[in-house]
Structures are given as C-alpha cells and as structure tokens.
Amino acid sequence: MTQSGWQIELQGRIGSLAIDIHFTAGEGPTIVVGPNGAGKTTLLRAIAGAEMGLRGRIVLRDHVLLDSSRGASLPPEARRIGYVPQGLGLFPHLSALDNVAFGCGRGPEAGARAHAVLERLGALHLADRRPHALSGGERQRIALARALAPEPHGLLLDEPLSALDVGQRRRTRAFLAEHLREAGRPAIVVTHDVRDIVALDGEIVVLEAGRVVQVGRASALAEAPGTEFVAELLEPLVPSGESNPRPSRD
Amino acid sequence: MPKIASATRSGLHAAPSVVLGLGLLLVLVLPIVALGLASSPGELWAALGHPLVPAALWLSAWTSAISLLLVILTGTPLAWMLARARGPWARIIETAVELPIAIPPAVVGIALLLVFGRQGLLAGLELGLPFTSAAVVLAQVVVAAPFYVQSAAAGFRSVDDDLLLVARTLGASPRGAFLRVAVPLALPALINGAALCWARALGEFGATLLFAGSFPGRTQTMPLAIYAALETDVRVATAIALVLALVAFSTLLLARAARRWLDRSTSPHARAGGSP
Fold first, then answer.
1. What are phi and psi of A171, to 5 degrees?
2. What is the phi/psi pair of residue B8, to 5°?
3. Predicted ipTM of the assembly
C-alpha cells in the first residue's frame, strides 16, 4: 500500500516535557505552531533522528523512519530528511558551495550537483562566500539549497525566517513558499508568524505542552480556535466585523 | 575604538596599578633577558658541543614528540566524550583529568612509581618501566595531557549541536560529522592545546627525575641535563637553558601564528566575496 505524506506518533519525555504527539499530514507544507516550549523543535529533531529517547512510529510516504514496536530506528544519515535548524546550521568553515556540496557525496559530481542546485535557487553568485559574508536572506537560501541538494524525501524547517529583518523576511517568505511547492516533497515548517502561515498555505498542526491540540486549515482554525493560543495567533485572519483585527506589524 | 582606548587608559592611570603591572612584567621578562645575555654566541656554540647536550637534545626531541602524538591520539576522543557527555559522571571524570595540573610533578613521579615500580600496583606485569626512556614518555604524557584535553574539550564544546545533526542528516556518519565538522571548527583549540601540551612535556622535570632518573642518553632530557650540568659547568647549563627557552618561545609564536591564520581564513573578510 502506498501512502503519502507524514504519519507521526511519538511518546516519551525530553527533560521536563512529556511528549505525546500524534498526527498525519499530507504532501503539501505542514505548518507546526505552538507556544515556546511546546515541543516543536523536539518534534523536528525526533523526525530527523536526534531524539533517541522518544518511542513511536514515524513514516514518510513509504519510508519507515522509526518503529519502536519493531525496534527499528534509522540513524539520521539514513533517513533522507533535509533539516534546517533554527540558526540554519551553516558550516562556518565552508564556502556556500561546499556547504551545499556537503551532502552530495565526494568527488567532482558533488560540486556539479551543488552548482546546479545553487543555480536553480538563484544563488550561484554566492557560491564562493563563507556564511558570515552573507546576508540573512542569502544564508537562508544556502541553507535551503543545502537541504534540497541530496534530494531528501522530506524537509524540516525550524522557524526559517525568524532571524531576518522585515524586508528580507518578506522576500524570503515568498521565495520559500515558491520553492517548497516546486520541490514537490513533504515539508514541515515551524513558525510563530501568521504571515508565514498565509504564504505557505498548508495544513496547521497546533502543539501545546507536548500534545497536538488542533489540526486544520488556517481559515477553519481561525473560525473555531480550540485554544487561546490559536485564537491569538490567527486573530489577524478573522474577517473584520467578527472581531477586532490587529494591525499588521509587517 | 578610541572611546574604549581612552577609557582603558584612564582606568589604569592610577599610579599604583601601573607600578604593580610593570613589576610583574619585569619579573617575567628579566630572567629571560638575563639568560639571553649570559653567554656569547661563541660560548653558546662551544657549550652545545659538550657531550651531555646533543644526547639530551635528541632525547627531549623524540620523547616529547612521541608524548604529543600519544596525547593527541588518546586525548582527542577523550575530549570529545567529555564535551558531549552530560551529568555528574562527566564532571567527575573531567576533574580527574585536570588533577595532574594541580598536583606537583614530583608527586606525579612518586605516584607513577607506586603504579609501575618494583613494588607497585602493576609490579606483577614486570613491565620494567621505571628508569627507561619509556618512563620519560609516560611521565610527560601524564603531566602534559591535561593541557591538551582541557583545551580540546573546550573547543569541541563550542561546536553547535545543530551543526552535527545537520551533517548527519546530510548523510555523514557520526565519524564523518566529527572529522568534517567538529575537528575543523575546534582546530584552533586543538592547536593551542597541542602547543601547551608539547611545551609542558618538553619542560617536564620533577616527575621524570623521580620516575625515570637522570641517565645521560637514556632518561636525561634537557631540563635534567641543565640540573646535571649546574654541578659541573654553569655555562653548559645556561646554554641548554637558552636553547629550551628559544624552542618554547618559537612554539608560542608558531601556535599564535597558526591561530591567527585559522581565524583569518574563517573571518568575514577572508574571501573576495567581501561583506554583505
């Protein structure tokens, strides 16, 4: 049986946080929101293969990444998941091109592939620069290029726009939304920003205190918010008249 | 920049602190200057020909090189484990590793005899270690390794966890992530630790004297040769001392240059790409 998207069941304890996360999500972008300490980053790290303390089952399309009941857990290098952590995690000692080529194997083909990915993302002119010689938006592009280069089965992005200033954020948001659609692979994006939710136009998973409290499209969640957090977050999406929309901060 | 400079100057302007600082500087530098002035080049050359000197030089060179190699080989994985580990055990082990820094080298020498000596803990193995060149190496390793491990662990600790996870998700094995990400990023700390460790091994005296003795050609390293020469010919002692000081000084300069070079090659303006 072929399956699409994500199927995630995770239980366990990370530090003081009890995790009990269950959800399935489709091929399009999945947006994870939640207050600080809700377990968003823990969820991404668990999918990437870093949180060995959690039990459960993680399936992406036909690939079983974790199945504790059968004692199966792939190491991160075998999961084929592109992961962009909150600080982007660019290797400071490598040029942009070498960052992108890192996951493309060894030899001349690696460089050629990295070259091609940079070109596709319109970032070829940055190839020779080190990460600290790049602007926030450029860094974001390189991080996305690096995650995409080994052709992963899925993508994880942890607050991809949080480090950017307002202007860069708007441009990079549009870029990200476009390329996530183009990449054609399931992506989970953690964000705090309702404008990201609108731009990515995906299914929303709301995490609070290590649990999924609500799942759905932005419009449905805005209409019937399950918790105060959801109501607060999506308030700008509520048509005026029903409530007092807050002024946009952008 | 000017603001900081003037603030610092006015802060240190108080005469007593200037006198105190210069006092320390004088005590640190004056002996080295005296050492440099003690012998003419001709005397130095003649002293280096003294039979004790070439043997001690050679012994010091190869024992300290092997010690450094052993420390890097064993200390790098240990530092990595200490940097990754959390919890009370890691802290206890770390303290144990640092212990030889706090303990006087002579005490280390006695302790080594209590382990490897004729009546020591491992006497049954009949290793015959004491008073051999191998004992010189072991004494150097015990006394100098903590400097490397400490510096390397600090270097590894500063490597962001996320970078290692990203490397893994890009297909690197744990070993690959270590070699391709952690080691290059910790390299300045590794070089610094290696330089300190080697300098400490080269200068090792107390533990070596007690555990290995002072046999010319076998266990008499440069510091021990200085001590031996003092009893017969002060000029020979001074010459060896000067050589040791020069070697230590160049090590310091080399390590600094290497750190600078590494810093520059990862700094924002290193490449033609320029700043954003």
1. -65, -45
2. -65, -45
3. 0.90
